[in-house]
Structure formats: structure tokens, C-alpha cells
Amino acid sequence: MSSILIIDDEEQICEILSDCFSLEGFKVTVANDIASAKQILNSKQFDIIVSDVRMPDGNGTEILTMIREKNIPSIVIMMSGYSSISQEEIYELGADAFFAKPFSIFDLLNKVKELL
Amino acid sequence: MIFLNFCQDLLFPTDTIQHDISAADLVKKPIGLVCEDIEQIQSLVGKHRDRVSAVALVKNLKTPLSLGKTFHCYPLALFCNSKPQKILDFLNFQTNLLVQASLLESDKKLREFELKKAKKVANTLRQEYESLSEIVRKETEEKLEEKDYLIDLTQRLGKIGAFEINLFKRETVCTPYLLEMLNLASFDPIADKQFEKALEIVKKGKFEHEFEWQLDCSDKMTRYFLVNLRRDHVSHNGELTIVRGSIKDITHLKTLQLEAELQKAKSIHSSKLAALGEMAGGIAHEINNPLTIIAGNTAMLKKYHEMNALTPEVLFKSLTSIESTLARIEKIVRGLRTLSRDTGEIDTTSVKLDDILEDVLGLCNERFNNNGIFFKLNIENHDKDQLIWCDRVQISQVLLNLLNNSFYAVKNVDEKWITLDIIKEAKVWIFKVTDSGNEISPEVKEKIFTPFFTSKPVGEGTGLGLSLSRTIIKNHKGSINIDRNSENTCFYFSLPVTDQAETL
Fold this sequence. Notes:
heterodimer, A: about 120 residues, alpha/beta, five-stranded parallel β-sheet, two-stranded antiparallel ribbon, B: alpha+beta, five-stranded mixed β-sheet, elongated
């Protein structure tokens, strides 16, 4: 059973993604801000991390950078609703995929399955 | 002085000083002497001061000259400062004097001769007078022409014409330039509707009335004139008979004014669009997030349905989520729609304070949240139905502009907060936006309300936000400024509490 960490300040998005991945047999963990995500990641490793970029207490790329710096072999997928965010930059930081909001959750699911 | 030259030929040479001239000599050599003002003669005669007494003497000589009597007299003729008629009168008097003197002569021949001579002198003098009159007439005409030219020039330079209306005769006379300026063959203000209205005002007793007159010209251009009407003459029964006035061409001025207004309206709209553009990125995110939720919910509903696992609980939960998310989008869209409406003209109605807040905060709230900005709204004695008499769109724009500025100010500082205080005092509403942004330098404060001044990076600010906000608030008879006493950056604007708002 693959584990997934979903990070987004929008609780309802977390909830839907959580429902979707649970239904597919993933072990889902949710964090609503950067601080709690970091705390979770300090004690646990995940197969997949799906994170929003802009959040009230910081930027999701901090998580991405942290994972890549620590050489943790997680699949990291970033998502954002901001058109001003540069996808190239996100990929350069080491993201495995980027999803611009709004997106189809099944596209995300398929991408995750493809990357696993 | 023309007479002087003439008299030199006729009379004794002026340089010859002759004493004790006999009455007979006087008759032989007629003397024309006029003295209206003895002092003036004195100044003219100068060194021949002693002659002056003779001048005076002859002038005062009322009795006919009798032969054998000796006079102390000089043949100096001076016509100074005298009206032509007076000169003529004197010449007649002098002629008569000579005639009378000659009559006293026993020698009839001499008398006749002297009479002839006297008449000749009189004729010559008359002719001289006539030629003088001609010169005076010509000079007067020339002067009048010059004056006419100057009056016309003044009118042309000032683009102003004058007219006089005789209301009794229903006739109008005007300066030639007026017709030229109006490009009309004739000018009949009585038949003009705009004039009719203005004339009524003057007829009712207003001494002076000014109005703007619009004239559609043959070249399909509208020209503008400033007309000034003045009561001039009232008949014995109190009826106004004569009205005088001037018409000034103000087309050029008016065109500039209209262009400026158009430019102003355009810049208001473009700046509003720019302000919306500044927010576009933020708004996209605000809509993209709820759209993700809705899309996710519907996808999940389909999935559950395919799996035959769609329970009423799951369905209700998803629909509730979709419903609340749609409301979020609606708020944002409503705010956008209200704020992007073109409002060249101020359109005041009584507006609920809560509606303004919904327009503005609908757009700002999520952005503040997403950027970790702590936003606090304080309303003193908040009443949900509280009304403000204002232009809803414009006031929302001003408020949005202040909050937007604060957003930029706090975006990159560690401690991020923005407070909106709304206070209702006896006569004014006060809206205060305070933020934790860095202090604004005195130089920036100085210019902050100047059009096109911006402290934002190139391409991010239009520099029109605060200057337009000031215009809007001024139009609402309120004021907008920086609170210099505040510890943090604080902008406030006030709006008058009006009776309309209270009664509606």
C-alpha cells in the first residue's frame, strides 16, 4: 500500500484528494500548512507528496527543496492556482509533475500511478 | 495757428512794433485780434509781452473807433483755443467795427473803399474759416475711422462682438464683427430659443445675465459662445425696452474642456482596469481553488456512482461542498462585476455598508488568506442595514485601492496584517486602512496623491490609484489623506453622513 501526503491550505481540496486516493487504496495523510507538513515529514517518509505552492505560512517549494536536499526518494507533485508561477522553475527544483488548478483529480491519480 | 500765418500777410508784419497807431491806420489795416484767455496769449507772445495789453485793449473795445483818436495797438493776431464759431463771431464784430469807423470818414470814397476792403477781408476770413472747418471735419473723420479700426481690432483679438436689442421695435443692431464671427448674414436673437429664455430672465428684473450659447454651424460643427445680457433702458411704464450684450467665442476653450473631461473619464476607466489587472493573478487563484473543489466533487460523485457506492450521505456532503464553493465564486465574480463597471458619472444612491464590504472583501479576503495576511475588520456599532449615500462602485473602488496598496505594502514584510476600521461620527463616516508595511518616507508622502506617481516596481502600479481615489472622494464632498499621527501606515477617507441616507 503506497503512502501519500497531501498538503494544501484549502481543506476541501485535501478532503476530496484524500477520498479519491483512499478509494484507490492509498494510505493518506493530510497537512493544511507548511509547518505541520514539515513536522510530519520529520518523522515519516511518503511514497508520494502532493503539495500546493502558495500557502499562508510559506511556499510549497520549501517542502520540495527539503525532500530533494535530504535525498528522500519521494515522488513530489506540485499544484497551484497561480498563473504567475513558473512551471519550469518548479521542475528545476526537482518536481516530478505539476498540476495547474483546476485539474481533474483522475488525471492526478493516473499521473501518480504512472510515476509509481 | 493757421490764422496767425494768414494774418501776417494781411496785417502788419508781427515783428514790426508800432506805437501810437492812428484810428485811420487801424481802419486801413484791419486787425483781427482774439483773446479768450489772456494768460495763454501771454505765454504765446512771450517776449512781446507789452503787446498783450493792446490785445486786451482791442478786445475790450466796445465803442466804435473814432477817427483822430490814437490807439496803442499791435497787429498781432492770435487765435487760440477758440471754437470756429467764436472766431467767426469775432471777425464779424471786427468787420462791423471797421465799417462803423469808415462811416465816420468824411471821405465817402474812402468809406466805400474801406467797406469793400473790409468785406473782402471778411470774405477771406470766412473762406479761411470754411477751409479750416473742412480740415477739422477731415481730421475728425480720420480719428473716427481710427477709433472704428481699433474697436474692430479689439473685437477680433478678443473674439467678442456686441449687440443691442430693441425689444419694443423687435430690432437688433450689432457690430460687423459679430456677424462675421457667427458666420451669419443677420443676427436675430429674439427668434432664438436659447436667447428667448435668457431674455425672459433679464425682463424679470435681473440686471445682468450670462449663459452659454450653442450654435450649430453650417459646417456641422457646434460652436460655443458666452453671452452676456444687460438691462439698458426701461420705458416710463417700467417695461424693459433695450437690452445690450456681448457674445464671446469660447469654442476653443470648450473643446479643450470637453477633451479634458473625455481624457479624465478614459483615465478613470483605464486605471480601474489596471487595478483589476493588478489583482487578476490573485483572483485567478481565488477562482481556481474553488473550481478544483467543484471539479473534484463532481468527479468523485461520478466515481461513487460507477462503483454503485453513492450513498445519500456522500451525495449530500458533496452537494453541500459544491454549493458553498459556488457561493465563494459568486462573491468574487460579483465584486469583480461591480468594480469593473464603467462609471464616468457619479451615481449616488443609498447603499448598504455591508454591500460595499461584500464587493471589496469578496475580492480581497482569499488573497489575504493565501498570503498569510491577518485581516481585521472593526465596525463601531455595526448595524447590518446601515446606509451610506454614495456611488457604490466608486467608493468600493477607493476602498479596494487602499486595501490593494496595503496588500503590496505587507506582502514582503515578516509581520503581515491589515486593519479596516469603520467609524460613524455625527457628520462623517470614516474608513481607515492601517497596515504593518514599512513606513512611507516623507518624500513619498509628499507626492503620494499626485497622478502617475507610484512607488511600486515598473509595470505593477499605474500611479493613478490614489489620485483617482482623491477625485472620487472629493466628488463625494469627503476627504482622503494619510493619518500622520498613526504609528503604522494609515490611510483614511471620510464621507459626509447625509440626510438622504438617514431618511431612505
